[in-house]
Structures are given as C-alpha cells and as structure tokens.
Write a structure and sequence with these properties.
By secondary structure, the protein is an alpha/beta fold. It has one domain: NAD(P)-binding Rossmann-like Domain (Rossmann fold). The chain contains seven helices and seven strands; from the N terminus they run βαβαβαβαβαβααβ. The protein has helices at about 20-30, 45-55, 70-85, 105-135, 155-175, 205-210, 225-230, and strands at about 10-15, 35-40, 60-65, 90, 140-145, 180-190, 245.
Amino acid sequence: MLAPYDLTGHVALITGASSGLGGHFARLLAAHGATVVAAARRADLLAALVADLHASGHRALAVPMDVTSGSSIAAAFAQAESEVGSLDLIINNAGISITKPALEIEKSDWDAVVGTNLRGAWLVAQTAARRLVAARRPGRIVNIASIVGLRAIGQLAPYAAAKAGLIHLTRVLALEWARHDIQVNAIAPGYVETDINRDFWATPGGQRLIARIPQRRIGQPQDLDGALLLLSSDAGRFMTGSIVVVDGGHTVNTL
C-alpha cells in the first residue's frame, strides 16, 4: 500500500533555497521525512534555514551552489553525497526575473535570466540524472516553471521564454529518462505572494491583476504544497512529463 507523501529515506536537493518558495519547499519536504540539501548562493540565509530545520529535529545540509556554473553544481553534489548520501529528489527552483519592455532588454538581462532559469535547471537536472543512472537508482526531478511559460504576459520576455523552455524541457527529459526510472515533472504556479512581491499586491496595479484571477485571490506558498508532495512522492509514481498548473484558474481566464 502506498504511504502518500512519505519521503522518509529520500534526500532532496532544493535550489534557490535561501528565501521565498525555496525555503518553504525545504521546510515542507523535511516535515514529510526527507533529508534536505538546501542550495543557493547566499550562505548566511542557507545557514539560518538549516539551523531552523535542525532545531525542529530534521536532517538538513546547506551547500553553496551557483546554478549557472557547472563546477559549482558538481561540487555541491559531491559535498551532499559525502555528507548525507545520494540525491534522489531534485527541486529545480532557482530563478530570477527582470521586468522591462522587450525593446529595453539588454543582452546581459537576457543572459542572466535565461542562464539561471533554463540553463541552470538543465545543468542541475543533467548532473542529477547522470549520477542516478550511473548508480542504477530511481529518482524524481520537479522543475518549478510558471504560468508565464504557458501564456503571454508583457515585459517578461526572457523570463517567459525561459519558463516556456523549461516546460518543454521537462517533457523531453521525461521521455528520455523514463527508461532509467527517473520521473521529470513540473509545477507551473500562478501569482504567489512572497516577501519580494508582497507590497505590490496592495497597489492598484496588483489589485487589477488579482481581479483577473477567477478565485479572486493571490496564491500563498502553501497552495503549492499538494502539487509538490504529489510529484515528489509515491503518490505520483505513474506521472512523468506532467505540468501541474496551480494558479487559481488564471490560465483559463481569457479576458
């Protein structure tokens, strides 16, 4: 019988774990039994997160990682494996965004966003999969995409392109890696409130955006919990190549 959402015995890597959704995901997976490897560039924030997890009785490790650097990713995997064991659950969450009209986007803007959100996710996924295949072990990869990869929203050209690419990459990797018992799925969140964007939702512009969401509210990090646990656990063992949209109905509203 399945034990839904039980992650005991699994070692989960969460990229971009130093704040926002990444920190929330780390706490969620730890609460369901996973050993958590929190990865990001900001070591001080990672240390605080891991200290909180340890205080709650969870097993966790902080590793520095820049997802745009292959050597940084390799070093992080090596450190994690030596200290807590092989990684078999990967949450590709690291991402950045730049809001500008397309006519004003510089090459450096494009490279930074696409390099982190798409190339970085690809490098982390490939590194994980190569190690899993070599060890003949199953694994799961969950890419954090966005509804911006499914519908056009202005002033986010590189972010939208990267998230659309990540959605299609998810399907391609699922197709190729199913034979190795590696599941690759994605979550496409709608607008979710975080510390970075909280003030915006109280502005007239933010309120207009909320009015376009059929549920008439902004998402909260915990609204993603069910989707993440489904794709991370045996509850979703017959799912691969799936894109789970969690957006309060935003993408079905054509207005």
